[in-house]
Amino acid sequence: MQTMYSSNGWDSYAWAWDAAADAFDVVIHNPGVTEDPACGPLIDSVAIRTLNPPRRTNSVRPGVAENLVKNGDFEEGPYIIPGTRWGVLIPSMVVDEHSPLPGWMVESLKAVKYIDSDHFAVPRGRRAVELLAGRESAIAQVIRTVPGRQYALSFTVGDASNGCEGSLVVEAYAGRESTRVAHESAGRGGAAKRAVLPFRAAAARTRVVFFSSFYSTRSDDMSSLCGPVIDDVAVVSVRARRPGAKRG
């Protein structure tokens, strides 16, 4: 950890691991790479929670397609320590097998931020993800698909109501298809935008990727990185209409 993402002096981070035994040691240390050996990082408020394995959303309503994305609403994720107002950073290059955001990988050089509805504007539910650092801040998930079948990727884009103003653009990729969704932000939350990307699967596994097109900083300090918020991600199979079939 070297990059500071906030200007108030504190960043919260999350890591995950698979327990190999019923007891283990947690070690936090200073690697000694600071310019001034008399200085060092401050550590406070360490917490551990059990993460539930991600599952696809099985629809129980007739006529409603199954969501192939695991943890698409981001409700399962790292513990947010009470009293903290800056969210939780999920570090870069995190694979899905050991991700503090179950089902998702952070495929980038910079972290993404896990935010809660108590301190930020969340489009739906209680949790969402903020893409902090342009193309260097991306999340991805690999889903099972049937080659040749048509699908629809849908997701919601908004802002976190944290002073992140201007045009916030999310780029989404599903297989060979892509789209750009712009959200004009006043930095105060407001109406989020729903987007849909149709695509045809080319393989038995399809990678879904989200990242921000631009770098942004909060208007209140002009230094803290910020970006668009994504939430409520879904991929459903779209059945082709038979020739001559009538609409119901």
Verbal overview:
The protein has 248 residues and is mainly beta. The protein has one domain (56-237): Sandwich (Jelly Rolls), CATH 2.60.120.260. It contains no helices and 15 strands. It has strands at 56-57, 67-70, 88-90, 105-106, 112-116, 127-130, 138-144, 150-158, 165-174, 177-186, 193-200, 205-212, 216-217, 225-226, 229-237. The strands form four sheets. It has a six-stranded antiparallel beta sheet with strand order 3-5-6-15-8-11, with no helix packed on it. Strands 4-7-12-9-10 form a five-stranded antiparallel beta sheet, with no helix packed on it. Strands 1-2 form a two-stranded antiparallel ribbon. It is globular, with a radius of gyration of 19 Å. Mean pLDDT is 87; it is low at 241-248. InterPro entries: DGR2-like_dom (IPR006946), Pectin_Meth_Modulator (IPR052437). Keywords: Glycoprotein, Secreted, Signal.
Gyration radius (Cα, Å) is 19 Å
Give a quick account of the main beta sheet: strands, pairing sense, barrel closure. 6 strands, antiparallel
Q: Please identify the top-level CATH class.
A: Mainly Beta
Average of per-residue pLDDT values: 87
Tell me the overall shape.
globular
Total helical segments: 0
Q: What is the quaternary state of this protein?
A: single chain
Beta fraction: 25-35%
* Category by helix and strand content: mainly beta
What CATH calls the topology is Jelly Rolls
Q: Tell me what the CATH architecture is.
A: Sandwich
Rounded to the nearest angstrom, the distance between the terminal CA atoms is: 56 Å
Order of strands, widest sheet = 3-5-6-15-8-11
CATH superfamily: Galactose-binding domain-like
- Unreliable spans are 241-248
Helix content: under 10%
Domain tally = 1
Q: How many beta-strand elements? A: 15
Strand/helix succession: EEEEEEEEEEEEEEE
